Amino acid sequence: MNNSAFFFQGNNLLLPAGVPDTQMDSAISLDFAREFNKSEFDQIDVFEIPAVKGDRTITCVSLSPEYPLPAAWRAVPIRQGISLLNAGLTDGGPSIAYAQKPSIGRLLRAFHIAQWRRESRFCGSCGAKNTESPGELARLCPVCGRQEFPRISPAVITIIINDEDKALLAHNKKFLSGVYSLIAGFNEAGENLEATVVREIREEVNINVRDVRYIASQPWPFPNSLMLGFSARYASGTIRADGVEIEDAQWFSRDALPKLPGTGSVSRYLIGRWIAGSL
Predict the structure, then answer these.
(1) Most confident among 65-69, 232-236, 262-266 (mean pLDDT)
(2) Which letter, b or e, does each residue of 71-88 get, where b requires 16 or more Cβ atoms within 10 Å of its Cβ?
(3) What's the pTM value of the predicted model, to 2 decimals?
(4) Which helix (H) or strand (E) holds 269?
(5) What pLDDT is stored for residue 83 in this prediction?
(6) 102 burial via Cβ count (<10 Å: 0-12, 13-18, 19+)
């Protein structure tokens, strides 16, 4: 194993004293694992993730939510860290492609796999305790032979622009007060991504769109998504929030914007592209 690792618990990255939040995308010494009781098999998982495209392998230490942290350790929400580490990189612009530091990609990969491993300890077919599948990133059931690979769930997120060059922004019930972002939703079986864009917008805000165009994507392991960013043009209908997920949705001009999602997200990137006039 590598001599450095990421330490996770739930949706948080764990950092010991002396390591600032600005370095949370850098693995820390695996020697810190000595502060945890690794004999607690069901509570602590130490594992290595295979490299992708020549990158280095990634070592992780994943703790169950119930495990008490040693003194001086702290938990930093991964979402908060993405905004902090990506600050200034993804606000968009006429010639700026969606950017993400390679180190953040490694952090998100590690976090995604850590969650999947905790959720895949038992076979989904027969309930037996899974083992590791030799030579690949997968779980293997020793009883029925079922293999399970890390789940990746595609989801679309779309910036909608009308003929007055205003953008539709919406407040989801899960957002912080006053924050508006874009319409998003998961791809359904049998749909292509463009159909998902059209359906989600119609379901959540009651309008129809046209000219659906792919822009950029982002890994978003909360818990296992791949966000695929699109733009679309308003076609018809009157905005009506569904009241289930979306509490409010409005057309906004560039000079009268509400609170926006933090930097580091593909939603903020798409909004930034529109603000810069590059969509």
Answers:
(1) 232-236
(2) eebebbebebbbbbbbee
(3) 0.88
(4) helix 266-275
(5) 76
(6) exposed
> By the 8 A CB rule, do 169 and 181 touch?
yes
Rg (CA), the chain: 21
Q: DSSP letters of 120-158?
A: TSB-TTT-PBPEEPTTSS-EE-TTT--EE----EEEEEE
217: tokens are: 């994507």
Does the structure show a pLDDT above 70 at 38?
no
Listed in sequence order, the residues at least 6 apart from 209 whose beta carbon sits closer than 8 Å to its beta carbon are 158, 160, 197, 198, 201, 232, 233, 234, 235
Tokens linked to 168: 């539709």
For the chain, which domains are there? Answer: 4-99 (no CATH), 153-275 (3.90.79.10)
DSSP E strands: which ranges in the chain?
A: 4-9, 12-15, 28-29, 44-49, 58-63, 74-77, 131-132, 139-140, 147-148, 153-161, 167-172, 183-186, 208-220, 225-236, 246-252
What is the spatial distance between Cα 149 and Cα 42, in angstroms, rounded to a whole number? 20
